[in-house]
Batch of 2 targets.
Target 1
Amino acid sequence: MKKFVLVMTLVVSVFVNAQDSTMMRLEQLLQPQYSSTLALSLAEAQKFAIEQNRDLQNASLEVKKAHAKRWQTIAALLPQGDGTFGRNLMYDDDWNEKTIQLNPLQPPMSMSPWTLGLTVSEGVNAQAIVGAILNTLAIEMQDLSYQKTESQLRGNVLVNYTSVLVLADVATLLDSSLVNVSYLAEQTKQMVKVGAAEQTQYDQIYVKVNALRNSANAAKRNYRLALDALKVLLNVDASTDLQLTETTDQVLDVEHILGILFEDYDIQRNLDYQLLEKNVELAEKNVIMAGMAYLPTVAAFYKYTGQYGKDVFTMMSSPHTVGVSLSMPIWSSGKRASAVTENKIALQEAENTFSQTKDNLDIQYQNLRYTLVNNYETYVNQKENNEVTMRVMKNISDKYKWGAASALDLTTASNDLITAQSNYVQAVMNLVQSAVNLEIFLNNK
């Protein structure tokens, strides 16, 4: 019987060593290779993301594009000038330059003077004026969208930064527990060899060693995934060794999170509310713009045409031309009336959406506060559970060394530790995310 136990122990040991070797090779394969290093605090990471993130850059470009479009509309209302320059040549049928003689007493002249023309025009259109106002509203809406994108980016950086730190802490704790349980498994293995313990005890602990190892490796891989997600937000190359200079306790400011619950609520500060308000204003201006199609268009122009050359005959007419025109819309087969009706309907839809969203925002505010309170309570409970399970695990491990606890007790404590670590990570992330959501909603700066 003892020989059978020794053989089984040897087989298990070989299998464990082979499995450990495979896992080590896999970890080495997944280990990233870095070419540069970047160390950032949370504030530095948020600033870096704002400067480097392409989504925010695109939002900024949209604001600049709206400014350019507004100037195009304004420029159309200002005087426009065009110039011409050329030379007129007159030939006979044999393609010889033709001459003209207006006075028998004067020598003939070649009909080939240089011509210079200048036209300045100005048109006043009511729709163009309203269009300039619409472009101003578009700039304001793009600016609000930029602010919202920036707030969301700051919040996402905070969530991912915290996630990286928490997962790093969990991986360290699980590694520590793995070392401890592995040591106990090795002791039990030696006890089995001398007949002081049963093979079942070692098997139970061996299973738990594998579970802890898998949990520790999963935590490390999740840490790298979270770090890569943060690199994406920062627009950092994958080969950069991103190092976070703050700890979880420094980033997880619970007092600040609770303070958000007591901040003043002003719905007019909410960016979604402001965007919808601008959307209603835009719809109102579209109705006015459609009505402006009934108004006349006034245009004026000045034109100068001059001829220059060595032998240019005197022009019979003045080179200066001035004109004024008034264009009045008369009949469009109902096109203008339909445009006004369409924009009035769009205004009603915008007003309905605005009213409904306003009511929904009040409810959303309460839900965000409730969610933050619930997640805070869960965080406090899971933090306490995590600390308790770590103390229990240490106590059971010490007792097991002296034979005061069974392998089943050690297995149960290890299971509780893994569950507590997972629940703690989820509680932290839920707390931070709910705080970010409420802070973005309030938009209190």
Note: The chain has ten helices and eight strands.
Target 2
Amino acid sequence: MRAILCHNPKSGDGDHSKTELLDTLKHAGIEARYCNVKSGDLAAALREPADLIIAAGGDGAVATVIKLMPDRGVPLAILPLGTANNIAHSHKITGTVNELVKRWDHTRFSPLDVGVVAGSWGERPFVEAVGLGALPQLILNKSNGEQTAKVGEGRDALSDELAESEAIEVTLVIDGATIRTDDVLAIEVVNIAYTGPRLPLLEGGEKPRGTLGVAVIRRKERLATMSWLNAPHSGRAPFTQLNGRRVELAWRDAPLRIDDEATELPPSPQRAVASIDGRSVKLLVPP
């Protein structure tokens, strides 16, 4: 089997070295070529012939690999080494590296949709979510040095951000149906079950293939959402959860995030349109 190991050695605690990962794969009968996802050689490495792509790292590394894969017909396996590991948890991929490698069934796949969002900046793919408001602002805070090392710390930080968030005026259009509101604290257009600090924003934990979930947190839901963040699996989410095939956002003066990157856009009117691009990834899933 020809495999490519795409690894972020700084993910999580950084305690999984190149040598350890390659040795674990070799013991399972997999000879892998190694590529550091931060090296700048990832796109070229993924163009090499392979029977399996292995993404070892956090959500940022896994999403980067997915976005750069030229052939989504090649199976992808995830070794979740990050903090939230939202993509892996959304597909019940949990356990140690040894446990996961031993359980791999190279004939068992689950299709993973990939989203695409278009705006004044052009068109970009996304795996996890596109969002406005509190969560993009939290990502901007982290990029300025306010780091969180654990999921619980991330939820606490998001709760603090929601406490201070000012409302945004947003026009939301889902499959042609328009919702206008001037009291939005956050909107997340999600492609997988978990996002941010491992938050279950999809109602029921799943969505129909080819659709996106939409979570809308309004000002009147601020306190209830902050309480929900302490135990997000303990009950129904206190905010609106929708889904659709085409999601359009129109707003001004609020940061936008695409997966783990957030951008402060000019205060002029902005518009973004999100949908599924139609070419799913063949993701190895546990039995």
Note: The radius of gyration is 19 Å.
